[in-house]
Amino acid sequence: MTTCDSSRAIWFCGKIIPANKAMVPALSPTAQFGLNVFEGVRCYWNGDTSMLYAFRLDEHLKRLEESCKLIGITLPYDNAYIRQAIKDVCVANNYRCDIALRITIFIGGEGSWHSSDPVDMFIAPIQKARNILSDSSGRSACISTWERIADSALPPRVKAGANYMNGRYAHLEAVRNGYDLPIFLGANRKVSEGAGACLFMVKNGVLVTPTVTSSILESITRDTLIELSESLSLTVEIRDIDRTELYLAEEVFLCGSAAELTPVTSIDRISIGSGSVGKITKQLSDFYFGLVDGSNQDGADWITSVNDL
Ligand SMILES: Cc1ncc(COP(=O)(O)O)c(C=O)c1O
User: pLDDT, tens digit, for every residue of 55-89?
Assistant: First the structure.
């Protein structure tokens, strides 16, 4: 049995090969200019059913297609082909643990930043255990001095590798100044999102999250939590958020396929709510983890057994 280790196999340009043998050409637009689009799909292991479940795969593949369309790459693979590739790489590694799948579309040959072919793909499994919240899960954040990229410059709704350089500047600044992570404001000085995750706050018991036109990636986890909140009889407001509203919020958390639910317990050294992981954050996180591996059948429509791809 192979578990999540460094000897992993990767699906690379149509073949399953050892990850350390997968090479992108040095003169490719991807290596030179960071031209790629990608998805990070979480797959959760359920020990009771001995199954690995991909979470919201259809939505991730749809966003991959949309990212390709916006960045000017014609995706030469249909859903069935990508699903088979995912199955092949998971079977090759015989995973029996939680993982993330990085599905990356890149331009492989020699070319420039405006080249659009040849289009290639890799699918890399990455070891990633789920982050069950504890009392010490709270993170410190700062409001970044860097502004979130805008739809009019480098559209954040495209999940492109190059967009993450905006997150990099903000993250490095945050860590340099003693914080765990940054929160961006957009050009309108309203709250946008984190460097790799969307944001919710709880205000008077109501969940509030910025609109999809607030310079955010249209997060699948954000969408999931908006739907889940109904089952938990929680109200959600989707609207602009001022910076100072965050300081006065009862709870703040970030969310994403990688971030899952990440509680933020201080911002700019101002304590958020009680200064510890909030009740609603914990409630949503527990519910989320029940759904993602099929333990709670309410999420059955969102999970796909990797064996069935
Ligand atoms: C900038 C940014 N925002 C939000 C998210 C969350 O998106 P999703 O929930 O679809 O993973 C991510 C993670 O992929 C991200 O990189």
Answer: 999 999 999 999 999 999 999 999 999 999 999 99
CATH architecture of 9-127: 2-Layer Sandwich (3.30)
Report the candidate in 229, 171, 217 with the shortest Cα–Cα distance to residue 195.
171
Query: Measuring from each residue's beta carbon to the nearest atom of ligand 1, which residues come in under 6 Å?
Result: 40, 193, 196-198, 216-217, 219-222, 256-258
Q: Which residues pair with 99 in a beta bridge?
A: 43, 127
Cβ neighbours around 168 below 10 Å, total: 12
What pLDDT, in 10s, does the model give residues 26-48? 999 999 999 999 999 999 999 99
Query: Which residues lie across from 127 on neighbouring strands?
Result: 99
Q: What is the distance in A from the centroid of ligand 1 to the CA of 224?
A: 12
**What is the spatial distance between Cα 218 and Cα 62, in angstroms, rounded to a whole number?**
12
For atom 1 of ligand 1, the residue with the nearest CA is: 196
What residues are paired with 221 via a beta bridge?
none
The catalytic residue positions are 159
Q: What is the C-alpha to C-alpha distance for residues 46 and 292, in angstroms, rounded to an integer?
A: 9
Half-sphere exposure at residue 82, Cβ-oriented, CA atoms within 13 angstroms:
26
By three-state DSSP, how is residue 48 classified? Answer: coil
Among 59, 147, 217, 221, residue to substitute to test ligand 1 (most atoms within 8 Å of Cβ): 217
| Superfamily for domain range 139-292 | D-amino Acid Aminotransferase, subunit A, domain 2 (3.20.10.10)
The upper half-sphere exposure of residue 141, i.e. CA atoms within 13 Å in the direction of its Cβ, equals 29
